[in-house]
Amino acid sequence: MAERNPETHVIDFRAAEQLLAARDPRGAVKLLDSVIAEHPENTAARLLRARAFFAAAQLRPAQLEFELVLEREPDNAFAHFALARTLQRSGQDARATRHFRLAAALDPRPEYVRAAGFGTED
Q1: Distance (Å, rounded) from C-alpha 11 to C-alpha 6?
Q2: How many Cα atoms are found within 13 Å in the side-chain-facing hemisphere of 101?
Q3: In the prediction, which pLDDT does 116 show?
Q4: 83 burial level (CB within 10 Å; 0-12, 13-18, 19+)
Q5: What InterPro entries does its record include (predicted)?
Q6: Residues of the chain under the 70 pLDDT cut
């Protein structure tokens, strides 16, 4: 096996982004596993792996990764939104609502605001 180095991890990260974009989330997870094993503090790699787990319908691993990202970056609106979507898909609606609202409060993007139920006309 070839020696792993920081440049290899960057290449693997970029390749994982491409695999996820090409709808191969399991391939992305496989590449990211080695990156995260060497760099467990890398929040970007963890966020990408969480997205890949979600895309592969591996909701529990996705939830755990999104929660870890939020422990490190509690003001990451995207991570709140993605965690909320993950919780919603796994039937945890009350927890999902809380994270949808946090995402919208941190970043008032239209999709976050809609998901949180803010600004809807009655």
Answers
A1: 9
A2: 8
A3: 95
A4: buried
A5: TPR-like_helical_dom_sf
A6: 1-4, 119-122
